[in-house]
Design goal:
heterodimer; A: mainly alpha; two-stranded antiparallel ribbon; extended; B: mainly alpha; 2 domains; 13 helices; about 0% strand
Chain lengths: ~100, ~250
């Protein structure tokens, strides 16, 4: 049940965010500081999420196969690999390290 | 008689070629990103969401980063509303795409509630890159349609696949979520400001993890953005004051 609550809230919130941009008169959100903040917010959230989903196990910090997978994804990104290949690199290396490490 | 018709023909030919180029770009983006719905389906099912819940997210939320964030937060045992708040903050950027797209596409008011669902990173990127309104409209529509169809189809296949293969962690599929996030934000690190925000957010997100309830550290990490902006503004202010001082 609580999952459906989270889904409903996310659906409503994300749809309103999309619609607001199309409906409000241009210029309303165009203040430089607001635009700057809107551009930086995803950077902060995505960086924190990447770190947590790589190094967290519940509420403890761990270093496991996912770190190797993420490093592989980073290398793929530096080599300008396409999006799918970046994700595939992370998955394959993580699985490989787990298989080797038992 | 031949001459007056020749000009429009050449024009039509050039327009067709331009249209074809937009469609090709839009399909490329739509297919590449649409396929990654597979990773979402697997991750969501691996996080314990049912097939219906997973598909509902792709059909109704339809903004990848928010979807990954939500299932990640739920898997970590976060409060449903805290989890939704993190997903919502990630979705806020779409409002700013909408602002720019509404001027560019000039959609009739009645169409906007429907077009809104397609206002995401990829459609904005393709549409905003077009030099003409016609190109932008074609780019938006083709990217939106391709991506929506494929993202939902691959979500379904991913969720079914995850159920079939059982332990998704053994296949390294728990690394798909963070890799998607990394691929999304790495191109945003264009200047020192973005790098400082990312570094501070990582420190806050990991540092607060053991002490705050699940889901809250990510929201706290979002504070990295205003903090860095404030510090940057203050540094600029000081530099300006010093310059004025010297001028005097």
């Amino acid at each position: 049940m609580s999952i459906w609550i989270a889904i409903t809230a996310t659906v409503a919130g994300c749809y309103v965010a999309k619609l607001v941009g199309l409906l409000v008169p241009s210029g309303a959100l165009e203040r430089p500081l607001v635009r700057r903040l809107a551009a930086l917010l995803p950077v902060a959230l995505l960086a924190a999420l990447t770190a947590q989903q790589t190094f967290a196990d519940g509420r403890a910090l761990v270093l496991d196969a996912r770190a190797a997978g993420l490093a592989a994804a980073a290398v793929a990104l530096v080599l300008r690999a396409p999006f799918l290949l970046v994700v595939a690199a992370a998955v394959v290396v993580t699985a490989g390290v787990r298989a080797v490490g038992g | 008689m031949a001459e007056p018709t020749a000009l429009p023909d050449i024009h039509a030919g050039a327009e067709d070629r331009a249209d074809a180029a937009v469609v090709r770009d839009a399909l490329g983006v739509g297919v590449a990103v649409g396929l990654s719905g597979f990773a979402f389906g697997v991750t969501s099912a691996g996080s314990g969401l049912t097939l219906l819940q997973t598909c509902a997210l792709s059909l109704l939320v339809f903004t990848g980063a928010s979807q990954f964030a939500l299932v990640g937060a739920l898997a970590a045992g976060g409060n449903p509303l805290t989890a939704a708040a993190g997903a919502f903050f990630l979705g806020v950027r779409n409002a700013f795409y909408g602002l720019r797209l509404s001027q560019l596409l000039a959609l009739p008011r009645a169409v906007r509630p429907f077009a809104a669902q397609w206002v995401i990173d990829e459609t904005a990127a393709v549409a905003l890159a077009q030099p003409t309104r016609r190109g932008a409209r074609i780019g938006f529509a083709v990217t939106g349609l391709t991506l929506y169809a494929l993202w939902n189809l691959t979500t379904l296949l991913g969720a079914l696949g995850a159920e079939a293969i059982g332990d998704t962690d053994a296949w390294g599929l728990d690394a798909a979520g963070p890799a998607v996030f990394l691929a999304l934000f790495a191109p945003m690190l264009v200047s020192t400001t973005e790098r400082a925000v990312a570094a501070l957010a990582v420190l806050l997100g990991l540092g607060l993890l053991p002490v705050l309830p699940a889901g809250v550290p990510v929201l706290a990490a979002a504070l990295a953005a205003p903090v860095v902006l404030f510090l940057e503004g203050r540094r600029r202010g000081i530099a300006r004051d010093e310059a004025e001082e010297e001028a005097r």
